[in-house]
């Protein structure tokens, strides 16, 4: 008689990439935001404490290369070979990337108290994680015989750019007088790496998800739009890096037009019988809203001769909290339900958390737009951090156990 050995927690959580990276991503969703929100609150009270790096720069690095990256890697390591009709990535490979990323962020976090050399070491280890990821995904791309690899290629380019951004921060932490290095880290991360991965994935998956729910829907993907997104998000990143806010008038005008053209081919005007699908569409609306705000920011800089920080912050957070974080909530919810053998149906609890997250976006963008009239409104931006935490903490308590337990349908994965 065969006796099955008990499965350890590590064996359970590491059996597929998205279990592993989504599980750790849960902690990245909360801990950096709680830390940053408490800094905003005590800052309003006139309290601060010494750190080896500028707090807002550490916050940006955590959110770009920590929180968002965990979900991107978990998703990419799972679906990239499927897109290209290749064998799944070997567990030893994605586990190696996992340990590089986690150890890098442990070092980075310790470095906030211990000094810049530890911060630099952490950023370097994270860079090695990005390089390793890029090499593994490149091998999948190279081996694939699929005739159309445009979307996969652009996804790969975006992920590889994350390595350049994290390496720039590694150098910046050692040479803080070279501020251009930080702008490279931030510009590549916020205005190319993350939005381009999200949009490239949406380009492929949103029409598919829609066709599953709306049987009469015809999936239309416009290849030139994907190329325009890649080119002009890249151009926008360059405008940020070289502090040329006037350029947003060009980059975001083109991005807005291209995005509207593609979105009109999808089901934005149709009623969604499944709330999970509505999440995706509501999340994507924030991308053109962000572009529109940045168009005004670019026009302001062109007419006045200097940038308007409130407009740029509002556009930034419409993109990051609105488009990117909402898409992570939406995609992670769908993947977590579907890949655990559960029905692709949300309940009122999950719906409520999604709308609470939208409240975080509206509050942050709203306070920054009101800052155009009275800059004192910006002191209330911590409210969005509280709303974020109230949205994601219950979500984590709901979904983290799913990553740590077997599928409900008994299937592997």
From TrEMBL:
The chain crosses the membrane at residues 20-42, 62-84, 96-114, 120-141, 153-175, 181-203, 224-242, 279-302, 314-332, 379-397. It comes from SAR324 cluster bacterium. This is NnrS family protein. Keywords: Membrane, Transmembrane, Transmembrane helix. Signal peptide: none annotated.
């Amino acid at each position: 008689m065969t006796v099955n050995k008990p499965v350890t927690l590590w064996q359970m959580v590491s059996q597929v990439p998205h279990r592993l990276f989504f599980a750790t991503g849960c902690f990245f969703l909360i801990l950096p935001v709680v830390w940053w929100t408490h800094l905003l609150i005590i800052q309003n009270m006139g309290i601060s404490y010494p750190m080896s790096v500028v707090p807002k720069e550490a916050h940006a690095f955590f959110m770009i290369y920590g929180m968002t990256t965990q979900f991107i890697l978990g998703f990419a390591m799972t679906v990239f070979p499927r897109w290209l009709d290749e064998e799944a990535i070997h567990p030893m490979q994605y586990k190696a990337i996992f340990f590089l990323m986690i150890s890098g962020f442990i070092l980075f976090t310790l470095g906030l108290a211990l000094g810049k050399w530890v911060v630099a070491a952490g950023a370097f280890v994270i860079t090695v994680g990005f390089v390793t990821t890029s090499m593994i995904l490149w091998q999948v791309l190279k081996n694939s015989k699929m005739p159309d690899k445009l979307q996969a290629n652009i996804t790969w380019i975006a992920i590889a750019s994350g390595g350049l951004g994290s390496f720039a921060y590694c150098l910046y932490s050692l040479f803080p007088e070279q501020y251009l290095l930080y702008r490279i880290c931030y510009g590549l991360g916020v205005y190319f790496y993350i939005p381009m991965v999200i949009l490239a994935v949406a380009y492929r998956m949103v029409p598919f998800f829609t066709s599953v729910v709306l049987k009469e829907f015809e999936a239309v993907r416009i290849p030139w739009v994907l190329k325009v997104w890649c080119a002009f998000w890249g151009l926008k990143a360059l405008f940020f890096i070289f502090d040329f806010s006037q350029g947003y008038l060009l980059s975001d005008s083109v991005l807005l037009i291209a995005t509207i053209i593609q979105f009109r081919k999808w089901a934005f005007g149709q009623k969604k019988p499944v709330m999970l699908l509505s999440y995706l569409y509501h999340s994507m609306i924030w991308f053109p809203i962000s572009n529109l705000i940045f168009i005004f920011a670019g026009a302001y800089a062109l007419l006045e001769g200097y940038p308007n920080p409130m407009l740029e912050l509002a556009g930034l957070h419409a993109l990051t909290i609105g488009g990117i974080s909402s898409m992570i909530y939406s995609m992670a919810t769908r993947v977590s339900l579907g890949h655990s053998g559960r029905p692709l149906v949300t309940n009122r609890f999950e719906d409520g958390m999604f709308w609470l997250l939208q409240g975080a976006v509206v509050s942050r963008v709203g306070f920054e737009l009101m800052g155009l009239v009275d800059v004192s409104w910006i002191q209330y931006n911590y409210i969005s951090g509280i709303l974020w935490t109230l949205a994601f903490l219950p979500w984590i308590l709901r979904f983290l156990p799913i990553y740590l337990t077997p599928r409900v349908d008994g299937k592997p994965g």
